[in-house]
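**Polypeptide and fold**
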Amino acid sequence: MTMFEAILLTIITASTPLLIAAIGQLVVERSGVLNLGMEGMMIMGAACGFAAAILSGNSYIGVLAAIAAGMGMSMIFAVLTLGLAANQVASGLALSIFGLGLSGVIGAPFVGARRDTMARLDLPVLSDLPVIGKALFGQDPFVYASFALVIGVWWFLTRTKPGLILRACGESHASAHALGYPVLKIRLFAILFGGACAGLAGAYLSLVYTPFWSPGMTAGRGWIALAIVVFASWLPWRAMAGAYLFGGITILQLHAQGAGVKIPSQAMAALPYLVTIIALVIIMSRRGGQQSAPASLGVPFVPDR
């Protein structure tokens, strides 16, 4: 395997959890809900997924447990923000802190345990193609699931009536309610979908990317996924480009450190987060950048009694 192929493969693996989480959050925000609890849902997915995989001996059961954990955390957020009309920003931050703490308790018995990574697809002819063979036809199921999510979410939001209704709830929940659409129910399903994606992204971290459990192993990826949604202007294809951009920067800074680039390692490790901040500043300062956000994003909805 050439150096280019190795870098390409590692960029794809580093970008996949960001892409899965960002696509789920994109749907949530398109419905008009701002969930800042992505970090907590991801780390809970990582902890519960790894624990279930170790106890059952089956990685796919671990994946299901991670999705269930993410949805369970998102249900807590839904009860607070939809049922009690609590502040979405405060509820999301509390959910992240709660998830980080609870995941440490759940994962404590499994610190130091290891599990074989999930099997990769291996097509005899296609995976042997130079440069792109392993990158495109020799990946794990999560990578192809992330591609399917991008296509499915794009089709749902732009080509279906339910997708149009969900976007309407994000743009003007009062108008959608006046037309007879169940805004709270639609937002509930969107929040659960976002939680499932966050849990799936967490499962990828503990079952594929680094097949062991470590407290805090998400390392801020949930926050980067939130930034990617803004960077992408709430469009699925741009979210995919943003995830691979940030994943690529993460991997390239590691290779730069390995090559002995004379920059402090602490500065190189901070590079992906610095680029995230710079990208957000550029996007939000661009003329009309603020207008691309759903108009009702973060605004609680209380139906008329």
Observations:
- The chain has a mean pLDDT of 87.
